[in-house]
């Protein structure tokens, strides 16, 4: 007989859950194993009975993500991806790919946030200072280096899976976006504090370029959280790319059920 699991839980910050037909769900299936070992990865049908999606409004005014409540949701074993207990491995592969898709997407030169900030710069010559000019050029060089590194990584992904280098890419993308959008607000002064549209909308895609500088500044704050925080990505780069000593992890061999929470 086919097995079916019953899932109860709540998940915050689920991007575009209001549009999704399928979601990924990593469930703790064996609490007697250490925390990374007792997980299994499933695909959850968002139209299944017991799945409830509530919008979460974020600092920009929009609700890109949602709270998702699962009450007695039945997930058949056929919707398991990978072996039981291998959920962390599958999730790591998902996250590496997500980091390439966030930090390494194909953008033409001078487009995206960099293009928008450069346009603001060109449209406001009276506000130029040598210091801002210097910072903008440094950020332009970093963004260009990131764009070329992303191109290389995408070519490698075409032949397999991305590795931990995806974390470096996403880390530099988040830092660059936050520095560029901060510089744009400084350049605009008081004008930069005018917010264009505070309407609560539920989005299907990000729009970093046509919205105001204030929107870009606020939305870029999430870049160092989504897809893995910058602190965690620095740990990954240090340990798995640069081979530096690993962080002490006292809980890694203890059964999840015995950890204090
Ligand atoms: C716009 C946006 C969209 C998102 N979409 C999704 C989504 O679709 N699906 C989804 O699952 N999540 C989504 N998230 C959530 C996001 O991926 C997580 O919140 C994020 O990865 C951090 O995990 P956490 O909240 O569990 O933080 P925690 O793990 O609780 O960490 C809290 C803080 O402690 C720091 N920290 C934790 N451990 C360490 C350590 N070992 N060393 C140094 N610092 C540490 C973290 O950097 C962080 O600042 C989204 C978030 C945003 C902003």
Task: Describe, in plain words, how this protein is organized in 3D.
By secondary structure, the chain is an alpha+beta fold. The chain has two domains: 4-85, Butyryl-CoA Dehydrogenase, subunit A, domain 2 (Beta Barrel), CATH 2.40.110.10; 90-241, Butyryl-CoA Dehydrogenase, subunit A, domain 3. The protein is 39% helix and 18% strand. It contains six helices and six strands. The chain has helices at 87-103, 112-123, 130-158, 165-188, 213-221, 230-241, and strands at 4-15, 22-28, 39-45, 51-56, 65-76, 80-81. The strands form two sheets. It has a three-stranded antiparallel β-sheet, with no helix packed on it. It has a three-stranded antiparallel β-sheet with strand order 2-3-6. α1 runs parallel beside α4, α4 (165-188) runs antiparallel to α5 (213-221) and α4 (165-188) packs antiparallel against α6 (230-241). It is globular. Bound molecules: flavin-adenine dinucleotide. Residues 13-15, 64-65, 222, 225-229, 231-232, 235 line the site of flavin-adenine dinucleotide (FAD). Flavin-adenine dinucleotide binds at residues 13-15, 64-65, 222, 225-229, 231-232, 235.
């Amino acid at each position: 007989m086919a097995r079916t699991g019953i899932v109860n839980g709540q998940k915050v910050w689920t991007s575009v859950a209001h549009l999704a037909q399928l979601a990924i769900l990593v469930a703790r299936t064996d609490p007697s194993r250490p925390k990374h070992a007792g997980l299994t990865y499933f695909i959850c049908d968002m139209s299944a009975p017991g799945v409830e999606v509530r919008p979460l409004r974020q600092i920009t005014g929009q609700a890109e993500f949602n709270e998702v409540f699962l009450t007695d949701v039945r997930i058949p074993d056929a919707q398991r991806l990978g072996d039981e207990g291998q959920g962390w491995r599958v999730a790591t592969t998902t996250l590496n790919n997500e980091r390439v898709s966030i930090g390494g997407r194909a953008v033409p030169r001078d487009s995206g946030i960099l293009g928008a900030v450069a346009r603001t710069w060109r449209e406001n010559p009276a506000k130029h200072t040598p210091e801002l000019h210097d910072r903008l050029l440094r950020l332009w060089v970093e963004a260009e280096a990131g764009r070329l590194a992303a191109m290389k990584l995408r070519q490698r992904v075409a032949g397999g899976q991305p590795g931990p280098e995806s974390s470096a890419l996403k880390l530099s993308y988040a830092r660059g976006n936050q520095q560029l959008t901060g510089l744009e607000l400084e350049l605009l002064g008081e004008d930069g504090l005018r917010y264009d549209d505070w309407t609560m909308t539920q989005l299907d895609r990000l729009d970093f370029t046509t919205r105001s500088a204030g929107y870009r500044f606020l939305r870029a704050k999430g870049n160092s959280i989504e897809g893995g925080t910058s602190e965690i990505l620095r740990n990954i780069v240090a340990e798995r790319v640069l081979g530096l000593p690993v962080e002490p992890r006292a809980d890694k061999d203890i059964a999840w059920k015995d950890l204090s929470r």
